[in-house]
Amino acid sequence: MIVTESETAAGPTQGLPLHTAHPLAPRPWAVDLRDISVRLGRVDILTSLWAQVPKGGQTVIIGPNGGGKTTLIKAMLKEAPFSGEFVFEPESPRIGYVPQRLDFDRHLPLKVSEFLALGLTERPLWLGRPKGLPAKIESLLSEVEAAHLVNRRLGELSGGELQRVLLASALSLSPELLILDEPATGVDVYGEELLCELLEGFKGRFTILMVSHDLPTARAHADWVICLNRRVIAQGPAEAIFNSPALPATFGLHQG
User: Fold this and answer.
1) Taking phi first (over 0 means left), then psi (-120 to 50 degrees means alpha), and beta for anything else, what does residue 22 get?
2) Which of 16, 49, 129, 255 pairs as cysteine with 36 (C-beta 3.0–4.6 A)?
3) pTM of this prediction?
């Protein structure tokens, strides 16, 4: 079943009739997007979004570059102004976030272990590390197949290695909702394969919300898909979305 914008029970009336569908059946949602809009200056970035993220599943937001995917995540994290409402279940979930890129001085003499320690303790590192902290850091890095990076400088890491360290940092929060923004960007083939394995291992542990413009990545991991191009084009189970007119409508592709 695919639900388009016009068929979302609480949503607006406009939308493309991409697929005959009934309103969404009641189910537990981790995030409910209610009439979300983002306007920067005089430019409408996102317009009246109504969508849901199923609890405990792996949802992928797909759409073209410039379609507002990252802006939506920033709004959800309250890092961008928006109108409308994000309703979370639980009300204030622990959120782990892996950004598309981390802007930092690569010449900074900061080790991976020190970077992770910054998020694990409020105590200044020059006063010494709390007992048990090194073991916690090692455990987090091992979980993302990156234990060998513990003493490497952050600025020396490849794209894939840095993504795994950021993922370890996000996992340190014991998230109920894990948000990944274009996690395969700047990652080599080996890194993509490893990321796929990690995502498979996370299934059922917490809700995952991933942003991607890469359809193979979305196909490999999504059980629920939201098609976004400044507005929600359609949403529904991955298999139904990938076998519907939703993709060409989202990406502006021509069929023939």
Assistant:
1) beta
2) 49
3) 0.86
pLDDT in tens, 88-108: 999 999 999 999 888 888 888
Q: Is 94 left (phi over 0), alpha (psi -120 to 50) or beta?
A: beta
- The amino acid present at 229, given as its one-letter code, is N
195 has pLDDT over 70: yes
Residue 134 CB: number of other CB atoms within 10 A? 13
Distance CA 85, CA 68 (A): 17
Q: Give all strands (DSSP E) within 147-231, no chain letters.
A: 177-181, 207-212, 224-228
d(CA 89, CA 105): 37
CA-based angle 206:91:223, to the nearest 5? 35
Tell me the CB-side half-sphere exposure of residue 83, using CA atoms within 13 A.
10
Strand partners, 51: 33
